[in-house]
Amino acid sequence: MNNFDMRDRILQQLVRLEESKTDFLDHFPLPAGYEERRSVAILMERYVHRLEKLLFFLTHDSGFRLNFVIIDSTVTIMNTQLNTLESYKICFPDNSEVDAGHISFLSPIGRQLLLAPIYTNVNLTVPDGECEYVVNQITFS
């Protein structure tokens, strides 16, 4: 995907995040979900800030390569204990389809992977406990 197309998709994400912020946060009803809701609001603010920086690089760097996980990217992670690979497409909640590997950025794993840099270790909390993974590849198409 060229920088111009990626830039358009990032702009669409920024618009959608702004328009749907309340709807996304409503996935975590008050008062029980207060801490989780607050955490997601902070993550969304950080994400918007990173996308704004990304737009600058897409405009000024023709050789730009995505080096952190964003919505609509596919991330391949390696379980460091089992040496196995898993791939997930991070998406908006209405596009999630767990059986196809499409997970919402609001899901527990989606929130842990969003903004993760390539080649870094990520400790993911999963139903069986915590597992260490390495972010092996990030693609955006």
Automatic annotation (TrEMBL):
Keywords for this protein: Elongation factor, Protein biosynthesis
GO terms, molecular function: DNA binding; translation elongation factor activity
Keyword Protein biosynthesis: yes
Pfam families listed in its UniProt record: GreA_GreB (PF01272)
Stored InterPro entries: GreA/GreB_C_sf, Tscrpt_elong_fac_GreA/B_C
Keyword Cytoplasm recorded: no
Residue ranges occupied by any Transcription elongation factor GreA/GreB C-terminal domain in the UniProt entry: 68-139
Gene3D superfamilies: Transcription elongation factor, GreA/GreB, C-terminal domain
GO biological process: regulation of DNA-templated transcription elongation
Full protein name: Transcription elongation factor GreA
